[in-house]
Specification:
Elements lengths: L11 E2 L5 E9 L2 E7 L4 E13 L4 E12 L5 E5 L3 E9 L6 H4 L16 E3 L2 H17 L6 H19 L5 H5 L3 H14 L16 H7 L4 H12 L3 H19 L4 H7 L5 H12 L3 H6 L1
Antiparallel strand pairs: 1-2, 2-7, 3-6, 4-5, 4-6, 4-7, 5-8
Helix pairs in contact: 2-3, 5-7, 5-8, 9-10
Length: 290
């Protein structure tokens, strides 16, 4: 399965912050990438009959397409029959930075949170991108040297810059209105922070303003689109999801109240107590012991 593309142990480590991996595999019928939030960014070249699965919808793809995926949007890919081999590469955020490439990865429209990242290709575009993948495959190995790293970064940038010139898949855009797309981008980003299954993992984005910044949207516009599509404000969604996770942690872990408060990004346990009591009429300790 192409899940190997997203595992750290299969990545060529250039440094602690930089990892790169490429993989070309035949695509047999069935799930080729399991649904989850990935640890790496990726570029995936497809030719055949597939279905891209998100947490809120599924999208059938036919023919030649390229995907630019991020660490924020959980997804999976299902293959309906044996197709041409899937060509792909995955890399950490530190593989392409302003310092080593002259570009910020999130400055590219193909990787901006909430933006379109599925592109339909014609024969010429597919062949051009496939050629770049073949160059990547020739250079990728477990023994990394500076020249090889520069070439891999250069070829990856070629994929991204060519992607910048493409037109988004009409089937994806036309199937959903703007408010729905924006709202789902917000919900995906919110859900990408859960579940919390380790004390070292905490919520990094919690306020409407922080979500708006991460999605490169104005807070008022983002909240308006979320409410238009879902009938609830961003604050409602955030509070509801944090409360849900709080209840799960109180019931299923032995973490103390302060540890749970910290994991949920409350500065003080007292703030968490106030929040929990406001929404449930009981304290966290009372809920845990009930």
């Amino acid at each position: 399965m192409l899940d190997n593309l997203f595992t750290e142990k299969n990545s060529s480590s250039i440094s602690t912050e930089e990892s790169f991996r490429t993989l070309t595999e035949s695509s047999k019928s069935g799930e080729i990438i399991s649904f989850s939030r990935k640890k790496f960014y990726s570029v995936i070249l497809l030719d055949g009959f597939y279905q891209i699965n998100f947490e809120d919808t599924s999208l059938p793809l036919e023919g030649k397409n390229i995907l630019f995926t991020t660490t924020k949007v959980p997804f999976g890919i299902h293959c309906f029959k044996e197709n041409k081999p899937v060509q792909s590469c995955a890399f950490s955020g530190g593989f392409i930075t302003k310092a080593n490439s002259g570009y910020e990865l999130l400055s590219f429209s193909v990787y901006k949170p909430g933006s379109q990242f599925i592109y339909t290709l014609d024969e010429f575009e597919y062949d051009k991108l496939s050629t770049i993948f073949k160059k990547i495959a020739e250079e990728d190995s477990n023994e990394v040297n500076p020249l090889q790293t520069s070439l891999l970064r250069h070829y990856t940038m070629e994929l991204i810059l060519n992607g910048q010139k493409l037109h988004p898949s009409a089937s994806y855009i036309n199937s959903r209105n703007t408010a729905e797309v924006v709202a789902c981008s917000f919900i995906r980003l919110l859900e990408s922070q859960f579940p919390i299954d380790d004390l070292s993992k905490t919520i990094g984005i919690k306020t409407p303003g922080e979500f708006a910044e991460a999605l490169h949207l104005h807070p008022v516009y983002l909240n308006r689109q979320v409410k238009k599509a879902k009938g609830r404000t961003m604050s409602d969604f955030i509070a509801s999801r944090v409360l849900q996770e709080a209840k799960i942690l109180l019931r299923t872990t032995t973490w103390n109240i302060s540890e749970i408060a910290s994991a949920l990004a409350f500065e003080e346990a007292s703030h968490f107590n106030t929040f929990f009591r406001k929404h449930t009429k009981v304290t966290p300790s009372e809920y845990r012991n009930s």
